[in-house]
Amino acid sequence: MAKDKRAVFPEGAPKPLGAYSPGLISGGFLFISGQVGRGPDGYLGSTIEEQARQTIENIGMILRAAGCDYSDLVKATVFITKSEFFQPFNQIYMEYFSEPLPARATVLSALVDPALLIEIEAIAKLPE
Question: Domain range for residue 103?
Answer without folding.
Answer: 6-125
